[in-house]
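Hi R.,

Here's the chain you asked about this morning:
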Amino acid sequence: MSMAVVGMIAGMALGFAGYFGGFGAFLLVAALGAVGFVVGRFLDGDYELGDFFRPRSERRR
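And the predicted structure, written out as tokens:
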């Protein structure tokens, strides 16, 4: 699935949440979407657990 389609689906989900649930639901859906994105990238192998806990001075460039 292309990133454009994923972005469209995410935008539609946020729009429905904002319309039917109000601003609080919009923020909840956006936050859970961000968490899901990070978990998905972690499971794909793009992130390592140490990347989140390593100080900035020790990170790879």
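The chain has a mean pLDDT of 81.

Let me know if you need anything else.
M.
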